[in-house]
Model the fold of this input.
Amino acid sequence: MQTCLNQELKRLLSEETITTLFQPIVNVGKKAVFGYEALSRGPSDSNLHGAQMLFETAERCGLTSELDGLCLRTAANSWSGQGTQLKLFVNVSPAKLTPPEFKPSLLQELLEANRLKPSDIVIELSERYPTADPSELLKTLSWLKTEGFLIAIDDLGSGYSGLKLWSELEPDFVKIDRHFIRDIQDDLVKREFLRSVVELSDRIGCKLIAEGVETEAEFRVVAGLGISLVQGFLFGRPKQMATARLDPLGVQPAPTNKVPREETAGSLISQIEPVTSYSTMQYAWERLQSEPGLFALPVVDNGRPLGLLHKWRVLETFSTPYGRALYEKCRVTRMLNADALVVDCDMPLDEVSQRLIDDDAHYLKQHFIVTHNGRYAGLGSTRALLQKITIRKIEKARYANPLTLLPGNVPIQQTLATRTDKRLPFTLIYFDINMFKPLNDSLGYRVGDQVILLLADLLTEFFHVDGDFVGHIGGDDFVVISTSPLAISNAKTLQARFVEQTRRFYTESVLRNGFVESEDRSGQINRFPLVSLAAGIVEVNSDDRHTADQLSDAASHAKKRAKATVGFCFIE
Done:
């Protein structure tokens, strides 16, 4: 068995079939990603796929330095393709940092080839591995710090040399071994150990990173002790794409007392680790079997999605006589569905739904790939999309005006906020019925409701093209958000049409007189003109920096000016 592993390692090194995965390190205070640790894995169909077996075999074969060199080259190349300016943490064995293995010129070439700066890199030195020549190691680490590299001591507490190295080197970061984090909420000794390490780090100006944070209970204790940087499955498993979960930090899409923004395909993302075109069917099948809720695997090379591998197709093939024996060594591209739907994470849900319907008239796809700037971001499911759309329809009905069934204040503000966030040009029109109260008082509420319904119908008739939105604030107040260049012209035509069609609600004598008699605000009978329509208009350009609330105030001011203007139309 050992001979086979040795041969497998030599083949892996000669063919350079190492894959780099990235696990996030998050900043608790800033509620943001601080950096990523690069983790190396062997081929998916190899006995050396796991990191522990891979590096243990290299150590037994005396090939640790060769493996470290390949891992560093692969990590640098993969990181340069991620397009991020965050810190990259890389694990380096002490042997690689001492003569004759350490060669500054090769390190410089590696940085230049991948357009990286020393300040981008944090070199992690684990105390798990013994150091043959501590003095030479310290010389190299001191030189690296003067060049701008950052230094981290990894796995503090797992060996015997960590505190000694800490005192001699003065590292930028110290990573607490996961042993001291696991179930810390139930272990007084671990909490006290961590508390003492936090006090020490505060005194000497070193940042701590808690590794292996997997539960919210562990995170609460770690954060409560004042550790600002954390890493673990709670925030993201190692993946080829540098992604992270920030919701455990309390990052919410929007507070409940604020208007929610328009949902996009990004809200449907499931962080499914993809396979590559070089992965075998056997490896893909094991993934699909070990993760019961997984029904499709994205196939991605260097961030570029190639398609989907569906569980039903693999199951169908493997269940036939000799099917597994014939295909398990084949690459996943043998059964790849290359026509999978791919959508950008900023695509609105309605557009995603339409794309799914238009994509195939006979078969509704169950999964689709979501990208960000053309690179794989995650997997979306049609079921999740339908759930989101259903919930949104329920919410829309909840916030609709009960008389006109048009969207009310919440969706009005949501739409306005979305368009201002995206810096989209549009025309905002605030419509208000002039002399509505005298009509309502003299002709009754039933006629008043009919006039409001008439205006709602006219608004949806004049403003119905893509990009138009009609909302009912309440009473006789309405809002239109339009991207049409004819918006102002349509508003003026609508005003004339409204006056023309409302005349049918009056008696012949009222029409002849041109006024109605009704109580004024002081309780006195007075004469009032017939109803008309005021339109306060605000034109918003793409370079406008006003917030949704400021635009609402501007529209309200324009409406007031319109009511006092000849023609009842005022453009802000």
Observations:
- The two ends are 81 Å apart (CA to CA).
- The first strand starts at residue 19 and ends at 27.
